[in-house]
Amino acid sequence: MKKSIVLLILFLVSATIFSQTKFGNPEVDPIQIQKNFSEWSLYQSKNIMLSRDFVALDLLSKEISKETFLNELTNGNFIPIRLKSEDSIYYYKLFKIDSNSDSSIKATINQIGFDALKNYKMEGTAFPKFSFKDLNGNEVSNVTMKGKIIVIKCWYIHCTPCIREFPQVNRLVEEYKDRKDILFVSFAEDSPEQLKIFLARKPLSYAVIPDMKIYMNETLDLNAFPTHFILNKEGLIAKVLPNFESLEVALAKESKL
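^ thats the sequence. predicted structure below, dont judge the formating
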């Protein structure tokens, strides 16, 4: 009897240890990365892509839903760290924010988590109906683009991150130029006159729709720029994305469906 109890305890202990380590170890020291905002910010921007598909893990390495994971980030008490993995799956785990960590990290994670959760909840919903004309006078609407994958970039002239990614998104348009079922459209806050002058210096390969500030702020409820949408062929929002890097990954996946 005693032997059975001992074996049971050993099994439970080993199972617990295994559950905590089977997904791999953190690719960075969770405590060390919190000591300097610049180092953490660089790591976050390059290694943590909350818009992508990933396996979400809590403090004890237990799998949780992506929504639960993002919701935990909004309270500012956790930091997401990617785990080393032998396969192509991404594993993100929650670690407690250290009391001595840079206070800016906590505040930034709170905002990142809020934005990511808001974007995630939009996935699978219908994109609001629209009908506008681009700078060349072409009608752009849900009807004219029905049955297509639509990539939408939301931006404005004085948004530095929006403009910085122009070369990258232009290359993306070039990459998919033979895909007649993929269309690239951009919503810009600025007037036609302002855009024509600006785009003469900094070309954008997307169709550009002017005067979209009210639509983006009120209908789409955007508070961060750039924001990218990928709509599937049924007109549903497949992904809402904060930058080119996440857009590139998501479009590669959507284009194969």
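DSSP finds nine helices and eleven strands in the chain.
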